[in-house]
């Protein structure tokens, strides 16, 4: 096994280079080698300063999930020092320890940076503490060091945000002694030499006072974040808040103990397991698509054909991500209206400072308008944003990517909304699709700044099938005597902002009234719409919509009760939640059997990124695993409803239960 820490010695400086490609994960083996190298440097009388650097593009971009084990299991299987112990070794070093980062310093790597006495960074480097996205908090002292260095407000912004932040951006810039434009190693060597010449010793972060100097401001920041998080369901966020507050109230060692206890309590929780599942699913999608954007040249030219709001959003997104766009319609009026909206949106961004005047001109210079046939010439791909563009010829090899529901023969796209901010898209692959078409479509999705999920289908994608299932199940529950308001409440209590009947009112019942139901089942949107209740715009649908807000409509309940038998015993909100999650997992099982998707996690991440399914539930397939597949199968078997395709457990359930497996075992 190659060395994970390379050692060099120069002018009294011990240079310890982390080299654990491809991500420089701070693994157990790396921690052991780094600890040994630190000890050797500390015992060498010729060494005055220790420099920590990393090989490759990034300082550290990986996360070691073995750190989520319990302390007992970790000690039994891992003789290496913990990350907490390694950071303590760095911080208590009697010789100055300097960390120099390039690219990304992520998670454990970022914790090592904070434990170092001095810090330098390459311009463009970023630092991130993504633990909160996994239902965790940093566990090597960051919740104690960061507030001592920066104060409660900035520390909480970094820890609760969980996203990469450029080192040059205040207040993160205050963590670094220097940010250098080039030759990081040379600059760091000179910095170490200057420390030696000045006789500067260690500067431990645990002794920093800059962030604690204003106790009132510290407490005000805690109180403000606590109020903001009052009803947030993610436990890790509350634990981070408590630990940061402890940095002001407790001695450093006591704060470390509190952080470690909170970490392992969270790591063993179902919620953290669900959040880690979604985090890893997103990274798997990203890693699978990482190189695909390069398939399109930097100056790639695409066509957007069709007018309307969908086309406008796609044009803006494409321009903002560096593509050259030829926008064509058959109706010049729609094109002029669309161009006016594009200009209005981009000008508003300029007014907010989100884009400079020069950048705005550059964006608009890459947009050409014209008739559809002309705009489809010399493009790498065409996005079909409206019907009526099917006869427009395209260059050979350029895929025709429809965005709207339609039978899929080659390759189509479904972009999650809102298109401007969502980072997810489904690449729908039909039976006649070529490999080149699929690769080009995936590359285009990556160039649009979105994660592509490949779905083999003749029509609907994952999210469309799952949401259709949710609405069919909601109607079936009304068939069985439940009321729409209890069903919506069950969905809201999950933390999912997609309550089916509220959604129908907001979009208009006409959008749902044509969905077919089996004999003996009803489409309740059609029933309610026939009485003149069309939804929000009409002032009434399933709900009454007034200036004071939305409220249940007793007359709708009477209408429903007059047309169906009453429920033998109304289900509780918890029972309705179980039924809805069960029926979604059943549809997911059907998609796996059809090989529409390759893995259960793909369904979970599609539902989270595409339909805002709550991260802390992990997705419908993981929710079924957590409930127990035998239990969920029994729930489905207990439903007496004519739509047996919807409710009858798919054969996958019996196979998994028989073999003692879960959906998670199919993720590979």
Description:
The chain is an alpha/beta fold and 668 residues long. It folds into 3 domains: 5-267, 2-enoyl-CoA Hydratase, Chain A, domain 1, CATH 3.90.226.10; 297-459, NAD(P)-binding Rossmann-like Domain (Rossmann fold), CATH 3.40.50.720; 461-508 and 517-523 and 565-668, N-(1-d-carboxylethyl)-l-norvaline Dehydrogenase, domain 2 (Orthogonal Bundle), CATH 1.10.1040. Helix content is 47%, strand content 13%. It is built from 27 helices and 19 strands. It has a 6-stranded mixed beta sheet with strand order 1-2-3-4-6-9, with helices on both faces. Helix 8 runs antiparallel to helix 9 (235-249). The protein is globular and about 90 Å long.
Largest sheet: 6 strands, mixed
Number of H- or I-type helical stretches: 27
Helix content percent band: 40-55%
Q: Provide the CATH superfamily of the largest domain.
A: 2-enoyl-CoA Hydratase, Chain A, domain 1
| Class based on secondary structure composition and strand pairing | alpha/beta
Distance between the amino and carboxyl termini: 26 Å
Overall number of strands: 19
CATH architecture tag of the largest domain: Alpha-Beta Complex
Low-confidence stretches: none
What is the overall pLDDT average? 94
Tell me, briefly, the overall form: globular
What is the topology, as strand order, of the major beta sheet? 1-2-3-4-6-9
**Percentage of residues in strands:** 5-15%
Please identify the top-level CATH class of the largest domain.
Alpha Beta
> Might you state the CATH topology name of the largest domain?
2-enoyl-CoA Hydratase, Chain A, domain 1
The radius of gyration computed from the alpha-carbon positions, rounded to a whole number of angstroms, is 28 Å
Number of domains: 3
